[in-house]
Amino acid sequence: MARPKIRALLIDISGTLMLGSAPTQRAVQALATLRRHGFPFRFCSNTSQESTSVLQKRMVEAGFDMQGGDSQELWTSLNAVQRHIQRRGLKRPYFLLSDAAKDECISAGLYDPSVRYDAVIVGFAPALMDYSHLNTAFRILVGEEDSQKGMGSEDPGTIPLIALHKARYIESSGHGHVLGPGPFVAALERATDREAEVLGKPSRGFFETVIESLESDREGRIAVIGDDVETDLGGGAIELCLWRILVKTGKYRGGDESREGVIGPDEVYESFAEFVDSLGLDCGSV
């Protein structure tokens, strides 16, 4: 299928723009090309081990031109969790998150340690993925945790299991693939017989929120680019008919796009920079 006219681009960060703290090949220059031509884009990250501000600082240090202030360019799963906590009025979630990620999620000032746990929120936090912490999460979800006893008769089935994302594995700089939060979320789902609410990619709600922030009146399709055909390009990206571009950097491994059960991308490129080159912006076309 021939590529449609692209009116805006949703860009994954880890593995697509950056590998650890270093940019992928020519990614800094490619992003500068998009900005120079006024091509609308948003950064979309499932980061859950570091705060959004730390991620933005790391991108600046890598050489990327980032807008500061009230810019809505950078969207993360932590942003989504913070909004979700405020919207649902959650007072005391049980966090399986790093301290930095947890602090960002509760920065709205709603957290009250004197009340019972009212949610379980899971992200990428390797130090917390042990039996003790997972068992506490399980006991909260089924109403057996000590803090819940004698504090009302709320049905434990109403306590939500919330996942920032369900990636089975992620790319660790210098170490290749490492286990992601997905298998731990799946264990809690199986043990409690409920399905987690996913707030980051590839949930439809996450993509819709980001798309609403775009002020593009250009004609054409919105595209999404990433290195994970499922977490970056699956789910809501398919439901919303986004043009899906897979890059062969980061966690990509040969044949990912043709694995059984995977809906293949619309295009595959060696890198983010190669895709931007294909837009022909410096030649006066899109």
Automatic annotation (TrEMBL):
<dbReference type="InterPro" id="IPR036412">
    <property type="entry name" value="HAD-like_sf"/>
</dbReference>
<dbReference type="Pfam" id="PF13242">
    <property type="entry name" value="Hydrolase_like"/>
</dbReference>
<dbReference type="GO" id="GO:0016791">
    <property type="term" value="F:phosphatase activity"/>
</dbReference>
<dbReference type="InterPro" id="IPR006357">
    <property type="entry name" value="HAD-SF_hydro_IIA"/>
</dbReference>
<protein>
    <submittedName>
        <fullName>Uncharacterized protein</fullName>
    </submittedName>
</protein>
<dbReference type="InterPro" id="IPR023214">
    <property type="entry name" value="HAD_sf"/>
</dbReference>
<dbReference type="Pfam" id="PF13344">
    <property type="entry name" value="Hydrolase_6"/>
</dbReference>
<dbReference type="GO" id="GO:0005737">
    <property type="term" value="C:cytoplasm"/>
</dbReference>
